[in-house]
Write a structure and sequence with these properties.
Structural class: mainly alpha
Distance between the termini: 44 Å
């Protein structure tokens, strides 16, 4: 059943993003930022944890999960080290996603040649 919920949650998020792209003048960068901030806001209200429990990978593979990771990392850093811990905690959980994105983008750029 979790596979169905993962498909539904990720599909709904992608559908919302596509509707925003089709009906507004926002660029994909704007929509990516919007969903990252939305993930952090949902994490703040405790909704994103429930979404992960329901949808599993469907909630952890989309871009809103990056906002969730930034928020939870900053919160853990704050609890451990105080105000300055917010900045160090930001990348404790999200750092792996950033490094993975850079590594895979580099590999893809070396394998494939872009068209002009």
């Amino acid at each position: 059943m979790i596979f169905i919920w993962a498909f539904i949650v990720a599909g709904l998020m992608c559908m919302i993003a596509q509707i925003i792209l089709d009906n507004t003048k926002l660029t994909p960068g704007h929509v990516t930022t919007l969903f990252t901030v939305l993930g952090a806001i949902l994490a703040f209200f405790g909704i994103y944890d429930k979404l992960i429990d329901i949808a599993g990978g469907g909630a952890t593979t989309i871009i809103s999960n990056f906002g969730y990771l930034l928020y939870t990392g900053a919160l853990e850093g704050y609890r451990e080290f105080g105000i300055l811990g917010i900045f160090s905690g930001l990348l404790t959980k999200g750092g792996l996603a950033i490094v993975g994105s850079v590594v895979f983008a580099t590999i893809m750029a070396l394998i494939f040649k872009p068209k002009d």
